[in-house]
Each structure stands twice: as structure tokens, then as C-alpha cells.
Specification:
single chain, alpha+beta, three-stranded antiparallel β-sheet, 3 helices, about 15% helix
Length: about 180
């Protein structure tokens, strides 16, 4: 019982001598780090890197703690294996970026003094089609043949719109069991 009045007295003494932290005057510069990198916002778009336009991941290998990435160079159509140590092209792996929502990881790489994030090559969205057969309408005329001009037909007349036909459902007849 005697502890509570002494505790309250010490709180009153502290409150009277020191202002609360939120009451202290502050300058805007003390919040510069928060203003530059807010923990409450996410970037809406990722900056495009020239390395991402040039390179793409074709595979990732993990051997124990060592991670190796196969990289495809779009300029000369070559493939290179990169690790944490710089290779003959002065290219090195900085880190592997794995996100929970994404199924494909990305890699942060460094080429000389330039760094950027690259991802896997996207599969072509249009299916590969075989070249047309010569002589077919799509392939054009075969050797020694002339192109045939197909006359254009007039457009079809418009049909009057009729209500859709009624749908009739015919169920099988069920007979009662005979004793």
C-alpha cells in the first residue's frame, strides 16, 4: 500500500522535469530516412534495368550453400554460369530473390559496376506453327503454278431475329410395379 503513493510521486517528479518524447520539438530532417524509405508504402512499379533487357535466367543450381545461375545473353545468344565470384565476363551473382507470391525466383547480378535484377525467360505466348505447305492457300503457289484469284462474294443478307425456340424436355414414362 505504501508503494503506490511513492510510485505516483516519482511519476509526477519525472513528468514535471522532462517533457514526454512526443512533446519535444523536432525538425523535419530527423525524419528524412522515413520520408525517403517509408515502411508503409510499396513500390508500384519495378525499375527496368538494362541488364534485364540483355540477360535472362535459364536455370538455377544449389549445391549446399553455393548457388549458381545459368544466364542467357540475348546480344550474342550465349549462355554463362555465374556465381558469387566474378567470372571471365566480370559478371557475378549478388543474391537470389524469392518472393512468397511468385513461383519463379529472380536474381540480382552485377556486371562490372552496373547491377540489376533479371528473371527467367518468358515462354512465347503464341504457339509455334509449322511453315505453310507450298501450293496450299496459306503457302502461296508452288513452283511453276500461277496464283489463283478467288472472287469476293457479296455479303449475306441479314436474317430477322426470331425468338429462341421453346425447349421441350421429354421424360420417360414410369410405370408402377405390378404385384
Amino acid at each position: 500500500m505504501f508503494l503506490i503513493p511513492s510510485l505516483l510521486a516519482s511519476m509526477v517528479v519525472c513528468a514535471a522535469s522532462d517533457p514526454f518524447p512526443w512533446e519535444k520539438p523536432r525538425s523535419l530532417e530527423s525524419f528524412r530516412k522515413l520520408l525517403d524509405h517509408s515502411p508503409f508504402s510499396l513500390p508500384t512499379a519495378e525499375e527496368s534495368s538494362p541488364l534485364a533487357d540483355r540477360f535472362a535466367i535459364t536455370g538455377i543450381i544449389t549445391e549446399g550453400e553455393d548457388v549458381q545461375v545459368f544466364v542467357f545473353d540475348r546480344t550474342d545468344q550465349s549462355r554463362t554460369l555465374i556465381t558469387k565470384k566474378p567470372n571471365e565476363k566480370d559478371m557475378s551473382l549478388v543474391s537470389i530473390i524469392r518472393e512468397d507470391r511468385s513461383t519463379t525466383p529472380r536474381a540480382s547480378i552485377r556486371l562490372g559496376s552496373e547491377s540489376g535484377t533479371i528473371s527467367f525467360m518468358e515462354a512465347s505466348k503464341q504457339p509455334q506453327t509449322a511453315p505453310p505447305v507450298p501450293g496450299s492457300p496459306a503457302g502461296g503457289p508452288a513452283q511453276g503454278q500461277q496464283a489463283i484469284q478467288v472472287p469476293s462474294l457479296p455479303p449475306l443478307p441479314q436474317q430477322p431475329s426470331a425468338p429462341p425456340p421453346r425447349r421441350i424436355i421429354r421424360r420417360p414414362v414410369v410405370t408402377p410395379p405390378q404385384p
